[in-house]
Amino acid sequence: MSRFFRAGESDSDESDSDYSDELTHSESEDHSDSDSDDSSSDDDDAAKKTGGRGRLFEGSFSDSDSEDDTVRVVRSAKDKRFEEIEQAVTSMINGQKINDWVSVQNEFDRANKGLQKAAGIIAQTGVPKFYIRAVADLEKSIQAALEKEKSSSKKMNASNAKALNSMKQKVKKNNRLYEKEIQEYEKDPENYVEEEVVEEKPKAKKAKKVVVSEDEDGSDVEAADDGFTPVGAGGKSIELNQENIYKKLKEVAEARGKKNTNREDQVRILERLLVVANSPYQKIRVLLGLTSAQFDFAIGASGYMSIPLWKNADKHLNSLLTILEANPDYIIKEDVPEEEETDKDRVPQNGEPVYIQGSLVAFIDRLDDEFTKSLQNIDPHTTDYVDRLKDEVDLYSVIVRSQAYFTRLHLTDSISRTTMRRLEHLYFKPDVVIVAVENATAALLPASVATPNQDSSALIHDLCVFLYKNATSLLRTRAMLCHIYHHALHNRFFVARDMLLMSHLQETIHQADVTTQILHNRAMVQLGLCAFREGMIKEAQTCLQDISGTGRVKELLAQGLSPQRYGAATPEQEKLERQRQLPFHMHINLELLECVYLTCSMLLEIPNMAQAGSNPDNRKKRVISKPFRRMLDYNSRQVFSGPPENTRDHIMGAAKALSNGEWQKSVELINAIKIWELMPEAMKIKEMLGHKIQEEGLRTYLFANASHYSSVGLDQLAKMFDLPLASVISIVSKMVWNEELSASIDQVNNVVVLHHVEPSKVQSLALAFAEKAAGFVEGNEKLLELKTPQQAERPKKGANANKEQATGKQQQQRTMGPRGGRGGRNQFNNGLGNSVRGGRK
């Protein structure tokens, strides 16, 4: 047989076998279909009429029919449109996970186009909830990505970064259209999503196959009335009752901190357990776990707890304190051994208290820290900041309540920590505000815990004295600085100055942590402002010199970040600096601070420059304020000087007028500064400044013109500067006594006789030698300061190695800014020490 016929025979055999298989299969299908459905038999008859071809494809038709019966669904236009949007949303979420912002941008545009196509449907049914959830989460993801990009050393590529920045603007503009829906979603994300799921469930076919009795349905509805039904692994509901309360608490505690733990579910389970708990011991155990779980809650990219979550934690902490106050036999302590039998309820027996392991003071610290973080992240120029600041009374009442609880238990360390927290909420406030806060707290708490207080100074004094006696070294230092700040704020300069000098804090503050150094800087600034208000110009300039003279006032007071050069600070350092920033309501006005510093420098520098004369070498040697000198030189070099526009222009103009003897013009320019209105008793301060300008004008006139006169009449000086004769005599006598002016007073003729004394050759050489020796000493000190950190880095051996290394570390850790010249702190001590020796002026 030929190859051609063999191939045809094999083909026919295969087709026959296929035909027989199909026939057998179709017959079995027909048999099963005829038993089940009459319509299928009609279809079979129609198929028989079509002959063998119908018999051949009968099985495939029956299969397609069966598939249509089970799978095929006729969808409405709404389902089709919403499915398109949901596919785009899913792709958008996947793009966020892999940080592919180009695809996220494309899918976002695609989803919005789908919304436009379904505009008619959305007008009737509303915007899909899955879309609201997606755009709300997308905005948070964009913020997190931008924060990560700022702090990350490795930057994303150009197209991805461009898409991310574009998405920031698009999403911000898009979400304004759905503000109401997004707010509803953010209030309770879980319930918002659950409602959407409940709406979709009746559309699924599988739901029709589940048969639930009416009684079961009713019980399910009642169980879900509170909006949440605990569900465990496999979709089984979790039963919470008295028998398994400790078991569930243990499970939640063991799952805490693990990678895939759902913190929202943990909080909800603990909230249900709190409802189930009925004994004080059970409630205390559940509240301890619930408060910890809320602090562990996912806080997102914002870096702080959300306000509703913070208020829940505050409420639960108050509930815990209420239970502990009502049941004094239950005591929470940190140093308690772990319980062997944690699944049994414990009751006090024979008058012995029940000790429960926990830390209330840690909860207080965390609650206070989260409150501070929220204030740092809220725009202070909005009403949101004011609304958030109103919660400080609730926080303060919790601190006072916990302090009373620790006092009853004689827990000294916990009392010290809560007392310090309480002091940090009060020390920077005026008396009126402190009294209002204390009265509001007394209204919230029982009379046994807090009573109204009308004497704020006595309250601050009592809190600080307790910390002096019982607290650790760090807390004592901080309490002392708070006390000094409070005295300075209320114009008690001499008390604050004496406390600062006797404590010697300025000598050891460089060894403290950064936050304590910031508090020291704030106390020094407030002390300088207090001295200025009291009319002590030299003391004010001495206090402000180390802070205002550095050019880094914002960083030293933790009130912002100055623009840095590229690479001057790493992203980690900038992040730490931002975390240390103080809330806005604790800030000291930096413009007022600069105005006070420059005014004090003007009143000291202008007579000093006049005394140095026209010799440039003498001017360089006698420098009181370098920043003021630089500003004055820059202003003097200007070809054209217009009218003053800001604070600096007014002070520079006043300085020029004072150096030229035009004290009236100087007074007018100083009084024209509007920032003085922010200080209490502004008119009194302006009068004080006018009097000081008259006195310094007289001194400047005598220094500048002494070489041109042999004698000057005192009456003429008094008339020229509008001063009483006694004041003129006093000023001139002091200048003569301090050897600033070579002169004598002729009381008979009422004149000042000026002596022109030229130094001899030996005296001139001695002065030149002394100046060169001083230059050598200063150069050696600078070289020593440059070499000391390098030597400290090398490992040293010997008995003094540890001391030298510790000294080097201390010098490296100084973050207070450069010293204001050689012996900066000694100069500070001498400045305030002179005022001590001179008596109270």
From TrEMBL:
The residues forming a coiled coil are 161-188
Start-end of Low complexity biased regions: 825-834
List the biased-composition ranges (Basic and acidic residues). 22-34
The UniProt keywords, alphabetically, are: Coiled coil, Cytoplasm, Initiation factor, Protein biosynthesis
In residue numbers, the region (Disordered) covers: 1-71, 215-235, 786-841
Q: Name one Pfam family in it.
A: PCI
Q: Where is the composition biased (Acidic residues)?
A: 10-21, 35-45, 215-225
Cellular localisation: Cytoplasm
Superkingdom is Eukaryota
Domain PCI span(s) in chain numbering: 584-759
Instruction: Cite the GO molecular-function annotations of the record.
Output: translation initiation factor activity
Q: Which PANTHER family match?
A: EUKARYOTIC TRANSLATION INITATION FACTOR 3, SUBUNIT 8 EIF3S8 -RELATED, EUKARYOTIC TRANSLATION INITIATION FACTOR 3 SUBUNIT C-RELATED
How this chain assembles, per its entry, is: Component of the eukaryotic translation initiation factor 3 (eIF-3) complex.
Q: Name the HAMAP family for this protein.
A: eIF3c
Which protein family is named in the record?
Answer: Belongs to the eIF-3 subunit C family.
Q: What does this protein do?
A: Component of the eukaryotic translation initiation factor 3 (eIF-3) complex, which is involved in protein synthesis of a specialized repertoire of mRNAs and, together with other initiation factors, stimulates binding of mRNA and methionyl-tRNAi to the 40S ribosome. The eIF-3 complex specifically targets and initiates translation of a subset of mRNAs involved in cell proliferation.
What is the name of this protein?
Answer: Eukaryotic translation initiation factor 3 subunit C
Give the originating organism: Linnemannia gamsii
* Gene field: NIP1_2
